[in-house]
Each structure stands twice: as C-alpha cells, then as structure tokens.
Design a protein that fits this description.
2 helices, about 85% helix, mainly alpha, about 0% strand, rod-shaped
C-alpha cells in the first residue's frame, strides 16, 4: 500500500498529464502540464515526509543514547 502511494500514484498522475499533453492543442498542453506538475508535487511531498520521519528517528535514537548515558555514565556503543 505504501509503495502505491509513494510511487504508483505520482507516476499515474504524471502519465495522465503526458497523455493529455499528447492530445495536441494549446489548452491540452497547458492542462497536461498542470496535471504533470500535480503528479510531481505528490511525489515530492511524499519525499519530504520521508525525510522528516527519518530525522525524527535520528532524534529518538539520540534521546535514547542520552538517557543511557545518564543512567550508566558512559555513551552506548
């Protein structure tokens, strides 16, 4: 499910934008570019969320190491 949200959904939106752009008229090009941009935005928002979650994991590990240091007087290996 997560792979679908992260990769398949944005790829489908981008593909739909390319298909609309292939229709040919000027308004189709503009509409397709907007749809393509929306697909890229979905991908990059997912990417930013993953970066935020990774940072939170690092902060949690640092907090656990500090608690260990407070309890045992040495930094965990």
């Amino acid at each position: 499910m997560l792979t679908t949200i992260r990769y398949v959904l944005p790829a489908t939106i981008v593909l739909a934008g390319v298909v609309v752009m292939a229709m040919g008229s000027e308004s189709d090009l503009e509409g397709g570019a907007a749809i393509l941009s929306a697909g890229l935005a979905v991908y990059f928002l997912n990417w930013l969320f993953r970066i935020g979650v990774a940072g939170q994991r690092e902060r949690d590990a640092e907090d656990a190491a500090r608690e260990y240091f407070d309890a045992h007087g040495r930094w965990p290996d």
